[in-house]
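Issue 218. Parser rejects a valid record. Input:
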Amino acid sequence: MISLHGFTFSNYYNKVKLVLLEKGLPFEEVAVKPGSREEAVLAASPLGKVPYIRDDRGTLCESQVICEYLESRYPQPALMPADPYAAAKVRELITFIELHLELVARRLYPQAYFGGEVSAEVQAKVRHQLERSIPAFRRLARFAPYVAGEGFTLADCSAWTCLPAVGTATQNVLGTDLLLAAGVDWKAYAALIGERPAAARVAADRRAGGRP
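Output the parser choked on:
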């Protein structure tokens, strides 16, 4: 059986969990805090990052690597288009969401979610970067109704877990939800995906873990 290691507040943990549930794969969850220096954790994830998985073949870290592996090993139901170009467009969206939106907004998380403080300088840099990246993202995203088009894909597993984190963090720290301000209605999109049984399970488990 696959074991998923991490914690339920992590959007990247929930991204992998959503893939597992969408594919109907049996798995168990193992609570691991990020940054652990335990040897058992470092043997699977050398930077102590979560999530990582363990199965009959061994361990894997990095959420997108895990998702691609699950898609390759368990191709049905498919979460990637069969057409190579369409599949590349899905990967393009994932890279854009995680690199140019979530990773940038992540600098706000200490204040947005954990009671810390983020300097005015960092806030200004994040705002500047996101005000460039979000309109660019709008050029790629289709929301028809899914982020890559008509079908649910791995891009939705990324978008559904990352976009709310970005929107909420910018609202909490910068006073403006930069996604909504730029015309990205992530709330309607999140509600659409949230109707899927797998997403509803992820959201319920996240709330049960003590985070909004």
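Fixed in the parser; the record now loads. The first strand starts at residue 2 and ends at 6.
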